[in-house]
Write a structure and sequence with these properties.
Number of strands of chain A: 2
Oligomer: homotetramer
Number of helices of chain A: 5
Strand order of the largest sheet of chain A: 1-2
Largest interface: A-B, 44 and 43 residues
Chain lengths: ~140, ~140, ~140, ~140
DNA sequence: GTGGTCTAGACCACT
DNA sequence: GTGGTCTAGACCACC
């Protein structure tokens, strides 16, 4: 299966972050299967016309997180996706992340309603973008 | 007017972060007026039974952000609350903060619905806690 | 590459401010490269014979400003140094800072010439100190 | 003698800061003599078409500093301008203020030359503005 | 190992 | 009295 990477549209996120999100979304949605090989750093960087360091940075971060596995001389693969956290641990991490966001949003003057709106709008925007990428271009 | 500070409940946020959020919420909600004096570092630390450095850390961060003003030997006051960011800058900051949260949430395996639910639940929880603080205990 | 930290000389600035300035100067001058790891909080505190909290305070302030990045359990690194402000915003901040200084200087009775002299003298003093630090001692 | 207050032009400073600077400059230049009565808060606020709180804020800060004296029911007057600080004290205060400015300027990416240029340009700009105010309009 | 948070207590400077 | 800085030492979480 695999996914078609795409950059540029999707807001003002740095490229490597866009790549990270696409891999994560791809795995979550089943487009990327466990053990599947990802495009090599060089080939993907050429395909997207970005610097290979940018791709490497994205892969590296995902490897660090345990999402991907790097096998020397072989390539980068989707990792086993073991449940890395207990439920309590997940809640703790989620809370920390959520609170950081809410604190920033509030300090920018958003009220509760504006916050929930911003979240749901961003989510549907991301969903739409991802769908478009996967339908449109199926060839390099 | 002023607000009643309270710590301990409401998640696993560090104390100084709780204090920061309470000041921000207090200003946003009008409970703290511009120019109003906040409790002194020492007195608040005694009231909350925390170290004075912890209170100072919270005040300090808000001073650095321009939310509060510190007048040496006099006390700490609510600052002029000038619009510190342009609209574009605000959007940029909000997006960055939101995307960081969404990225973390997704990597924890939450789908879109679970994310929006988590956000709105946390918001109503915070609202409730803040309301309780301001009504309930007016004495130490 | 990296820089050699040093404290004590150079005026009556608090230690953590001296460290902040040295990091900023190091980055601006190219001695600290993007992505480079800084000495750990503990090791630097031992090297300088100051408390680790003092070093952490300096690092922390720079992290909040976006100059440094902290990776939990890994260390503190020089951040991407993206342009954090628009040109207009930079001018606004500079003006505010300059006017605050001029206001204080004038209230102390300095005339225009004395002010410009004070500025240029302090600048060359700082330059000299920084140069000495980077050449002289390469051992603790 | 007295001075003619004027607001609006002179950069993006808040009004109350402009007023403070004009009083200070007026005293330093001899336009305002010791013991001289300043316009009342209400009359000056009407003359400048600003809120009386803004004028009061400027006067209050100057009273706090000892530059002006407030005599209840009489008005606000230029204070005795005693040397409030020893020479060492003055140097200490000046250094603190200067270092704060230099630190900010450097964090905004200005090099030494840009800093000195910014200072001298702002000084001559302020001088020019003040001169214009005192020559132009001598009536309300 | 790393950074993050907190306590306890000290001294300084400003007012 | 006020806030600001620093030390010494503790515990936690992440890696």
């Amino acid at each position: 299966m695999g996914i078609e990477f795409q950059i540029g549209v999707g807001g003002n996120l740095p490229i490597y972050r866009q790549l990270i999100d696409q891999v994560r979304y791809g795995i979550a949605s089943g487009s990327l299967e466990i053990g599947e090989k990802l495009p090599s750093v060089r080939s993907l960087s050429e395909q997207l016309v970005v610097n290979h360091n940018t791709v490497a940075k994205a892969y590296n971060e995902l490897v660090r997180e345990g999402v991907l596995e790097s096998r020397h001389g072989k390539g980068v693969f989707v990792g086993p996706q073991r449940e890395r956290y207990t439920k309590a641990e997940k809640n703790r991490r989620l809370s920390a992340s959520l609170d950081a966001f809410l604190s920033e949003a509030r300090s920018l003057g958003l009220d509760d309603k504006q916050i929930t709106t911003a979240v749901s709008e961003r989510l549907s925007q991301l969903k739409k973008e991802f769908a478009e990428q996967q339908t449109g271009q199926n060839k390099t």
